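User: Please predict the structure of the protein below. I'd like the answer in structure-token form so I can feed it into my own downstream comparison script.

Assistant: Understood. Taking the following sequence of 273 residues as input:
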Amino acid sequence: MAALAADLGVGRTSEDVIGMSDDAISSLETLLERVRADANDWTFAWFRGEPDTETPLLPRLYRPTGDGRRYDENRLLQFFRMKAPTFASSAIPNREDTDQWLFLAQHVGLPTRLLDWTEGALVGLHFALLEDCPVVWMLNPLELNRLSVDADRQAVTTEFPLTWFSPTDGRTNIGSINVQGAWENDAVGTDRPVAVQATNTHPRMSVQRSCFTVHGKNKASLKDQVPPQYLKRYVIDPGNKPQLRRDLTLLGIGHSTVFPDLDGLARESRERF
């Protein structure tokens, strides 16, 4: 979920973050108070932790590589799907389940048009605290989907569109066409991103309470496509990261919680001891 600062563009220093207009958050209590106030009348709230950068909320696929080049989305996905069967330690999706392949590719680190989100504020904070200059974002996913519906057509908008569903009555599934666009060089898709609940293709997705936004034809940052009343930003005080980590541990959130494997356990053990 949390992307490396090097992948997100030019990072900022702790002094830059504290000097911003946002009031830096230094306690769990303050974060939860702000979240409650901002999402008071929302049905759903999704969270994302990432470093503070000049290119926030931009899928890794659309960020330049180290040498300034861009990823080739279709070749990445096709090559990954072709080679994955002999590398996977557990079951993989059927070849035609392109939505599940996209979710799996994102979760194991392939650059995709997806952005990881979580339904849990504390999980989002955990990922933010992995960064030098942590930021937590909160999104109203239903309002994003309402904005993403093209006024000229009927669309499937009941909460979150099923990414595998293709209507036969003339309606458009805004979630599935953005997934389809990833495999068909944007032949179809909405302009804005779409918020979707994913089929859990990896154990981490379940424990992280994973959900995703799927970019469409507009490749700009989510920050530039969603009005501020539906997208909130919380700057976390870098100087208080140790206390925030201890508080999360008391509430049962650690690295082995969100990465329930030996790698996650090893990292958590290093941090504790």
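That's the full token string. The chain has one domain: 5-146+199-208+226-272.
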